[in-house]
Amino acid sequence: MDYNSSDHISKVIARDLLSIQAVFFRPDEPFLWASGIKSPVYCDNRLTLTAPQVRDRVENALAETIRQEYPQAEVLMGTSTAGIAHAAITAHILNLPMGYVRSGAKDHGRHNQIEGKLVPGQKVVVIEDLISTAGSVIEVVNVLREAGAEVLGVVSIFTYGMKKGFERLKEAEVKNISLTNFDVIAETAAEEGYIRPEDVERLTAFRENPSDESWISAKK
């Protein structure tokens, strides 16, 4: 893979995610999120773990992104639970320590929320599988900061590119680099025949404002 071209990587990863249905578009039969929002896309990047060739490209792309964007990284921390395996594999490639952050502290033992050794002052990169509104990954960053870590930023496999997510990351002063994004995957899906070319505009409308369901009736 040409790791010197982020556009190329983004396209390759987009094709990979579509090919194994880790990202699956269904604009005419929307999925229902727990929040009640109707979505034309389903995303489960855990499926990359069961597809060895895709997994290899994803993990090596994560590793190369860290080399290029966060060369000072000393520890990788995965988000619980989807980011844990990706953090472990990427840390192995980079020969770096790895841990993960729980969604809440354990109610037994040492009551850890951060699993793995973390020394105050260490430079950390967070590994996340996908980012939508960025709330969960910012919580992870805050836990690490409170523990004394210097969080360099986040690397994620996929981002929806939602306005709310961008705003939250900016406000929290968190840098995120994603391997690919919603717009690239939508364009690639149209090129590869997964969806109709005219559906791209509807998908973009959803991404711009998920709570506005007018995209559903905008069939052509």
Please tell me about this protein's structure:
The chain contains 7 helices and 10 strands. It is of the alpha/beta class. The strands form 3 sheets. A 6-stranded mixed sheet has the order 7-6-5-8-9-10, sandwiched between helices. Strand 5, helix 3 (84-94) and strand 6 (98-101) form a beta-alpha-beta unit.
Write the layout of secondary structure elements.
Blueprint: H1 6-19, E1 23-25, E2 31-32, E3 38-39, E4 41-43, H2 52-69, E5 75-79, H3 84-94, E6 98-101, E7 114-115, E8 123-131, H4 135-146, E9 150-159, H5 163-171, E10 176-181, H6 182-192, H7 199-208
Parallel strand pairs: 5-6, 5-8, 8-9, 9-10
Antiparallel strand pairs: 1-4, 2-3, 6-7
Helix pairs in contact: 1-2, 1-6, 2-3, 6-7
Largest sheet, in brief, is:
6 strands, mixed
Structural class: alpha/beta
Which of globular, elongated, flat, extended, rod-shaped describes the shape? globular
| Helix percentage | 25-40%
Beta fraction: 15-25%
Q: What's the pLDDT, averaged over the residues?
A: 92
What series of H and E elements makes up the topology? HEEEEHEHEEEHEHEHH
Number of helices: 7
Query: Span between N and C termini?
Result: 37 Å
How many individual β-strands? Answer: 10
Please tell me how large the radius of gyration is: 18 Å
Give the neighbour order of strands across the main sheet: 7-6-5-8-9-10
What are the segments in which pLDDT stays under 50 over at least 5 consecutive residues?
none
List its traits.
single chain, 220 residues, alpha/beta, six-stranded mixed β-sheet, two-stranded antiparallel sheet, 7 helices, 21% strand, globular
